[in-house]
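Exercise 7.
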Amino acid sequence: MIDELRRVLPTVLIDGHVRGTWSFTAGEIRLTPFRPLPAAEQQAVDHEIGHLLPFLSHRPAHPPRSVSERRSHGAGQTTERR
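Solution. The predicted structure, written as tokens, is:
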């Protein structure tokens, strides 16, 4: 997925299909699926978030400066994890 500024957005892939986007801000992973996920897929995504969150939470001595913009994707729901 590429936004209007031509930035590649972090995507949620399930069985090889893009099912949503995610972002990491203030120690939280925010998942925005394009449509509600079935329970089994949500559990699998939550499991992966559990592995990703510690990796993202590690802060280097001089973290790079980044600008984050969150967009709504219509019918998607939002899930946050700290």
